[in-house]
Amino acid sequence: MRLTFEVNGVRQEADDVWPGESLLYVLRERMGLPGTKNACEQGECGSCSVYLDGALVCACLVAAPQAQGRTVRTVEGLAGADGGLDPIQQAFLDTGAVQCGFCTPGLIVTTHDLLERNPAPADVEIREALAGNLCRCTGYEKILDAVRLAADRKAGR
Amino acid sequence: MDFLYARSWDEALAAKADRPDAVPISGGTDLMVDINFDRRRPAALLDLNGIDELTAWERVDGHLRIGAAVPYTRIIAELGGLVPGLAIASRTVGSPQIRNRGTLAGNLATASPAGDALPPLVVADASVEIASTRGARTVAVPDFFLGPKRSVLEPDELIRAVLVPIADGPEQFAKVGTRNAMVISVCSFALALHPDRRRVAGCIGSAGPTVLPTPDAEQFLEGELAERGLWESRGELDDAVATRFGELAGAHARPIDDVRGTADYRRHAVGVLARRTLRWTWDEYRGGHR
After folding, report:
1. Is some CB atom of chain B closer than 8 A to the CB atom of A129?
2. Which CATH class is domain A87-154?
3. What's the domain range around B256?
């Protein structure tokens, strides 16, 4: 089937989509957007976190045809039009929150969602918000530092 | 595989009648896992995301009528004051990503004994609104399940809404898992006090083929509360009564050994959760909740 939906402000089309394909597969393999990572394919790891109509979701658990006519925002859509990094991306770099980097896109999108809803989260709120994103390098302390730094910078502190 | 879109409830019912082999999909948090791992290959998917009425809830005569596609995130944010037990359980489901998509109707239709929302629905006396082109029917939640992963849903039927009475007393939910998030429960327990009716309701999750009500424990506690006049006095509950309640609740468990825990552990843990949730709800009642 043919699918048409908006990704990062751009209308995208995909042809010959098998109806059981996930949104994740279509983004990565048919639309050339590999920033969203594929790891567990069962909603456990958060590597494929994207916005679907403004809600944070695991792209692996959305049937691609469910995105028809809707709006998707991926990690590629967070950076500014001039290529400048989002403050969250910059904070991950500055705090050394990136080890192997595989979980990073998902964590950045999830952090983005958290700070949109709660600009000054307490540590327990950060932990709850990131509970669905796994880092197997076990570098969570730096990730928490990155979220705190990003929150401070966005608030102009 | 075919993909069917429905833009209205009537369209959805017509599609399901025409294609009883179509599997409804809303949040996809259970179904897509099976499809991704090729454990299930439905002949068709029927998307319910385009039906606005399914994403709404309303108050009707002391009940909440929660549309089939309302996600857990909204139950937590919007309904916590009206159905606290369900909101507490909803908050233990998966992660923010899962709670943004997963629904009560999906939890019901999947019919896993480990469905976190199911015990609180049982103790709140909730029921399921089911429909097909042949008509509509309402089934009490405990009667909805036939066994693990099996429900009374006929091939042409869809869940339209879940009817949950607004809480008339304290409600609690607790679950055991290996971490604080992203866990399928090893076992769980929901408890509701219904002071107006002098009733106590308990329900076990994840320690039997379906969720299991705990009538012996309820009867014992109702007897003790009546005999000691505790509903009226809002007096302290003896440790011995709470402990006995836990033991009787645990005896209702019908657990198995599996990767998440042994049957013995589950039976014991259910008793502990029952005792704790009784303590929490009773303290709340003593503190003046209605």
Report:
1. yes
2. mainly alpha
3. 171-286
